[in-house]
Amino acid sequence: MHQTFDAALGINLLHANQQGADHNRSHFDEWGIICFNIMSSPGAGKTALLERTLATLSDELKIAVIEGDMTTDLDAERLRKYGVPVIAINTGRSCHLDSKMVAGGIHRLEHEYNPSEFDLVLVENVGNLVCPAEFEVGEHAKVALLSVTEGEDKPLKYPIMFQEADCLLITKIDLAPYLDVDISQIEANVRQMNPDVTIIPVSAKTSEGLEAWFDWVRSQTSQQQQDCALHLLAKS
Fold it and tell me: Which residues form the CobW/HypB/UreG nucleotide-binding domain (predicted)?
């Protein structure tokens, strides 16, 4: 079937971005790092989640953050308070990070630190429920957040984000008693899009569910380290 110019251009852009993402991932694999792409709509609680994650896990894991925002570095400054490297990327009018932008962050990480000392890189993407899911940045896993304040229908209205997610955090569950929202229905709608996704309801304010999230991060990081060790062994 004949493609329009716009459709072909979109495919070419995604193909070029995927090549860059694969290149970024090869760097992470070489250094023994696992990378998570943290995605959500604006205000779902990405930065608050990362604050709690850094406060708990930075003593046991060596973590760096690549922080994407359209203009300011306000979120980056919030995360720097936890004593971890935070590389801020301003995207301007772009509504998502892409692999080329993240490659710039990786090069800064490589220039300023010894990347092989890190266990985990957390990429906080720009707040958007559409584009970030389509443009890989070199991550090993996609983590999506959905706040209870956004309602039950978002997984059905914005399916790609939830189809692509490896882990889905339902955030701000402390607000659920004050809203006309059913968390079990949110989970059911997510399962329609992605039956195998890990779903973890959490509250960064009350800490409910956070230990399950921390355990998921630990298990993924440990598995990546084992995979990298086996890969190096096979090459030797």
Answer: 37-200
